[in-house]
């Protein structure tokens, strides 16, 4: 009695083809999940926030407030809390980024004199010195920082438009029913 699996009995070409197809399907699934990672993160964040705020809406409803008004109260309160956190955090982040940008040129000048960098640079055949010089030139170039700032501002503007558009799409049917 032969114990060879049926898949292997069909021949090595078929076995290899089926295995390669399986690998390609796994890669396609991985790429699909990776491309949806941002959307899935936003969905889970929205689910987390909605589950956390639902008891507050239910409590307001038990006190006689209509569901729409309760939702609006909770939404305004949540957005005010987020705005407060942004108002408190953004100045600190901007200040720290300013300190980092001011420190980088001097810090990169000093890095070449440190023992760990010297030994690492020798083990890489002196290529790290060229990398540090390129990094110094790039960080000292104002157009680099304008490009980075423009990209960040553009992404923030796009995200704001998506959020406001989504909010409008969700609130329009509710507000039309009330009218």
Automatic annotation (TrEMBL):
<keyword id="KW-0812">Transmembrane</keyword>
<comment type="similarity">
    <text>Belongs to the autoinducer-2 exporter (AI-2E) (TC 2.A.86) family.</text>
</comment>
<feature type="transmembrane region" description="Helical">
    <location>
        <begin position="12"/>
        <end position="33"/>
    </location>
</feature>
<keyword id="KW-1133">Transmembrane helix</keyword>
<feature type="transmembrane region" description="Helical">
    <location>
        <begin position="39"/>
        <end position="57"/>
    </location>
</feature>
<dbReference type="Pfam" id="PF01594">
    <property type="entry name" value="AI-2E_transport"/>
</dbReference>
<dbReference type="InterPro" id="IPR002549">
    <property type="entry name" value="AI-2E-like"/>
</dbReference>
<protein>
    <recommendedName>
        <fullName>AI-2E family transporter</fullName>
    </recommendedName>
</protein>
<feature type="transmembrane region" description="Helical">
    <location>
        <begin position="69"/>
        <end position="90"/>
    </location>
</feature>
<keyword id="KW-0472">Membrane</keyword>
